[in-house]
Structure formats: C-alpha cells, structure tokens
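Protocol step 6 of 9: fold each sequence in the batch and record its structure tokens directly after the sequence line. For illustration, a two-sequence batch is reproduced in full.

Sequence one:
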Amino acid sequence: MIRALALALLAVVATAPAAHAASPVGLTDGFYVDPDSNPAVWVRDHAGDGRQAAIRANISTKPIARWFGAWSGDIKTAVSGYVNKTGTKLPVLVAYNIPGRDACGGHSGGGAGTPEAYRTWISSFASAIGTRPAVVVIEPDSLADFGCMDGGKVAERTAMIKYATEQFRAKAPNTWAYLDAGNAQWVPAATMAGRLDSAGVRNVRGFSINVSNYHTTAASTAYGNSVSGALPGYTKPYVIDTSRNGNGHNGEWCNPGGRKLGTPARTGGGAEMLLWVKVPGDSDGRCGKAPGVDAGKFDPQLAFDLVYGY
C-alpha cells in the first residue's frame, strides 16, 4: 500500500508543470547581442557610410531585444530559431501581436486578427522557448492603451494577456516574463497595479516600464516602486527600457529630437534589469524627426543622433 502511494505520488510529480525555480540570469553568462538586429544589419551593409562606426560602437554591438509579431512568420519556428542560437547568453524577446495593437496611438496598429488567433500565437511563442532561459516583455502598451477602448474591449484584452501569463508559467519555466505597464506619466500607479493584477501579473516574474519611451531611469524607478507597492497584497520586480532615456523625456513620444542612448543592458541599476527593449534607430512612426519612416523601420540618422543626443 505504501509503495503504491509512493509510486502514485511520483507519477503526479513527473507530470506536473515545471516549477519556476531557475533564474535565467543564473543559467546564462550575460545578455545576448543579436548579430541580425536592424542596426547590425545596417552596419554590415554600409561600411562606407560616415555614421557606420558610431552606430557599430554604440548600438549594434550592444544587447537589444528582438521583437516578434505577424511579420515573424510561423511564430514557433521564429522564436525557437532565435533562442536556440543564443548559446550561453540570455536573449530578450518582445511579444507584440495583441489584437487592436496601439489602438489609441495608431502608428503601430495591427496584431492578431481575433482573440482565438492570439491565444494560438502566444501559446506557440511560449512553447517555442520551452526550457531555454529567456526574458520576455509581453505586449508593450497593451495595459496602458485603454483610453479609446470600451469596457468590452478592455475585458477582452485583459483576458488575452492573462492567458499569455498562464502560457509562460506552464510552458517556459526558465523564462522571466514581464507584463508591460506603460510609463511614468501615462497611467496612475494604483490604476496600473489594478490592471496588472487583473491581467495575471501574479503568474509571471513582474512588469516592464518605459518601453519605447524616454523617461529617466530615476523617474521610471519611482513609478515602478509605486506600482509594485500598490499591488494587492504582494509586490513584483520590474525592468526598465533605457534604450533612449539618456536625456530624459521632453514631452514628445514620437521620434523627438535631442534624445540620447541610455544605460546598456545590465542587471540591477534601480530595477531588476535595465534593458534596451526598443531598438535604437527604429522609428516610432511617420512623425517627429522621421516623418517618412514607418514604425519599426530602422533609420540610421535616428540612430546616429541618439549616440550624440542630437
């Protein structure tokens, strides 16, 4: 009888989901530098350009997140191919395919066609990482961009994000996933804490701040601490996008002038990690200093100006 119980217990343990015991930082030896990032590809192809040396030294040789969306093709193939080539280094990925993406801003619209399609996509994303160590930022702006959505759309989106957290918890045990929480001047901290809680932040490592924005690390840290402190009965760590916050925020968000690169990817620094989530040099949309460059497209002048704060 005792032996039968023991065997039954072993069977349960063997089929249970893997625990989130391993730190992806501890499993790796530094952040992955993507040799095929937009800046790296441009540097390879433009050896004679006078801006090339500065972009290579200050941007393309630094760890930068890789964004995944509909443009990635089959998501399982794309994600598994990426994480499986990072060796002993820690990759940072961004899932960016929520239906109705950038509903209020409009420059980065798109996303999966239906909630059902999104669930299939994000489940495949998590499965493709599997037991590989990784960091994932889940759907930038998706929980902050509620201003032009009705209650039904808000509830639908929240449910999709919560499903995403469940998939990463179940299928990617060595991934630290972070739900995006906007930036320091977008949504009040207590409001954002409620949104994160409803969207399942308990299921993942924490939340991200300042993705694709310019607020200083100090302002973002203060906001992150306030959001974490407002969560109902628990706290969560957070990461900050420092890719373009070296000169802080000037009140504009779409390709503003006078901005500068921030601290390259590192652990600590006021948050759990400072990361280059936005790719420096990738346009925010047809606006500001790059009125002819679509969102997500690399512009060498934007990149060069970020090196020097022009």
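Sequence two, same batch, same settings:
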Amino acid sequence: MYIKGRYIVSACALLFFQQALASGMDCTKAASVVENAICADKPLYELDAQMGAAYRKLMKAAPAQADVKKAQRQWLKERDRCGEEVSCLKRRYQDRLQILNAQWLDAVAYKPDDIDKQVIEDLQQRVREMSKENPEFALERALNSMTLGYVGSSFSAELDEDEQPLFPTTIPKDVTQDEWKALQASDIKGAAESGQTSYTLMDLDGDGQRDLIVETYSGGTGMFHYTETWRRGDSRFIRRTAEIAPQNSNDSVLFYTNDRGANQAVYLIGARGKIYFAYQNGSYGEDQVYLLNPLKINRQVPTISVRYDYQLTVPHTQYIEDSDKAYELEPSLQKVLAKAVTGLDTNTGMTGQQKKPLCPIPQSAKDIEEYYGYGASYYAIEPVADFPVIIGDDCYVARLINWFGSYDEKNGLFAKLTMRKPETESQERGYTVNGRRHITQVSTSIGKAEGGAETY
C-alpha cells in the first residue's frame, strides 16, 4: 500500500494525567512550610496529586526504579528551596511533571529490536545496489520492492446528512461476524472530525487476528491525510495510543501526510516476518525514511538517510507563471543564471539575514536589510539558498526555492530562481530551474522521527 502526501505539530503534553486525580498529600499531617503552602493553594495541591500519580505510574513502567527514586528525592530537595513561594513551587512541579511524562513515554514506547535494525540495514544495502543502475530513484525502487501487495479488506465510512463520516451501520463485505462484533464494541471514529474516511482490516503484528487501519482525508490548507491504527484484542479493537492520549487528539495518529507544504509518502512494507509503515519525509538534498511499528508508540525508530547532489540547469525555454505561454532566454542571461545556481546546496547560501550583504549597500540606502537576504518565505515552498546574481551593472538578491525535494522522471527536481533588486519597486523576476540528482551518501541510525511521523 502506498500513500502520497503534511505537516502538523504534535499536541502531546501531559496527556497521561487524563485519569481522575489521585489523592494528594494528607494535609492533616502537613508539617513543613512547603507542605502547608501546598495545602493552602488548590491548584498547587492538584499539581502535587498529579505528581503522585505520575511518579507511581513511572515506577511501574521504569526498568531502573532506583534511579527514579534517586531523581525524585533530589527534586524534592530542589522543591523545598522554594519555601512558601507559590509561583516557584508551581514552576518546580510543572517542570518535573514534564520530565516524568517524557520518561514514562520512553519507558512504554517500543524499543527497536535486532530484527528492526537488520531490516533498515537491508534497506540501506538495497538502495546502494539499486543506485548503481538508477542513482535518481534508487530509494523509491528499493521501497517499492518491499511493498506489500495485499492490504486486507477495506470499506468506507457512511456520510450523514451533514456529510460527516460515520462508522458503517451494517456489516461490510469480507468482514467476519467475529470482527464485526469487535468493531461495534470499540467506538471507532475517523481520525479527524470530518473528511473521507476508510477502514482496512489487516494482520499487522502476525498474531493471526486482523487489526484495523483508519485513514482520513481532512482537506484544509495542507490537504491532510491521517492514518491511525487499532490493535485487535480479545473482544474489541484497541487504539494504539489508548493508554496515553484521548481518542480525538492528534497524538492518536500514527502519521500524517501533507499534499501541500511538504513532500511525504508512505509505503506499507514487509521484511523478515514484520510489517512496517515506511514513512518518507523529503527535503532539498535529502530523504529520510522512518520504519514505524504499526501498533506501538514510536519514540526511537530505525531511520535511513539518503543524501543527494544536484546538477542544476536553467532551461532556455521558460514559461510565464500560471500560463502556457513560453519564451526563450537570451543566451547571455541564461549563461549568467546557470552559473549562479551551479553547485548550490543547503550549506552554500543560507536563507534569511546573512552576516555580509549580498549586494553592495549604497550610501543612499534607506533599508539596509534589503541587501542581506531575500525576505520571508511561504510555507508551501522550501527556500534553499540566498545569493547574489550580477547582470551587467545591476546586483540582484536571489533565492532558490523548491517543493521539499519533489522529484519526477521528466523534469527531475523542479525549482525556481526568484530575484529582486534591493529597494526598488520593480517586479520580482522568476526563472524555472531543473536539476538531476545522484546519491552521495546512504546511512542508517536510530532516532526520533520528523515531519508527519513526529507525534511525541
């Protein structure tokens, strides 16, 4: 299964305190200045109760309980230095709760095993082998060679009179009576409040029972696609993040893709007896692929990084933006532009305010910042580099932009060179730039995912 497409920031923050607050300290036994201050302030008392619940929860999950106890005793000493100052105590508690939350997530999150590490090494080797024959699309071909052909039984949500997706009310085709009973007992909704929603039953963990994949398209400015997974239990389906996140939060989503403002794709692959969502997050000069465990909390994931160099060209034939009309560049101008973009990468001309002006600043300048960088960018494009372009006696501040490394067989990299003269009202000048890439480095690591797979 292949899903093309997003970028959203995760909202996970202290979500594992959703349960009812545990009892706080026994205020009838408060003896110290700090304890009396806590008992006299209701919000502070609630923080103390949350602390107790968080600490006990971490102690159950942590492999090294002695270290947790030691750190907690050290924190209590730091807390007590606040005395009766409520604002200081609140900061101490809030900071500690965030730490406990992160430590608990680390403790319950999936730890990549030897098989996972071998799979990412296998993928690396396959990319290297395929790059000998096709250095442009070796990564995509390697992933396609591992993609599963069978994706299980799929069915769609029903729409109510307001076009809101509802879980089907009648048993879909190819769903067993046992699965239907478990589905009805699970309060399953779409991964977003509205949008086209589909469901797929497929065994994701090899236990002989089919699990559930929920895919939702929610539109919006980024044309977002969400994917959420539910594990089949004895009598019902259980959300992947049921223990730590409310059902309708973004944190219940395994990953999301964005068709506008990102270059992301997902491959459902199988290797060495396991199934993974291989999440590809692209940018200029680099692709990252994260192997996501479909039914687990992913904090540290096997990752392959593929880096590229580009041979950039400025075509003689240019097209007027939002038009089919074409024109030919003058040879002298084409030569200047081609020279300007030669060898550009993310390290040769950072965007934003440079340390030195890109164009000479005349004594008559009124806004010298105009000479140091191209200016603000738009979220749907990726700025690569700011640099000067000299045409005759005129100096232009230029920027190379692209669409997060988006690449196709016909044009290769599609990019734009935009340029303007500082402190002039003349319109910006824009030219199409194409590039052919080749792989310069393939490496693997275990680390935190980014893009739409970054949820915690």
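Proceed to step 7 once all outputs are recorded. Observation for sequence two: The longest strand covers residues 429-447.
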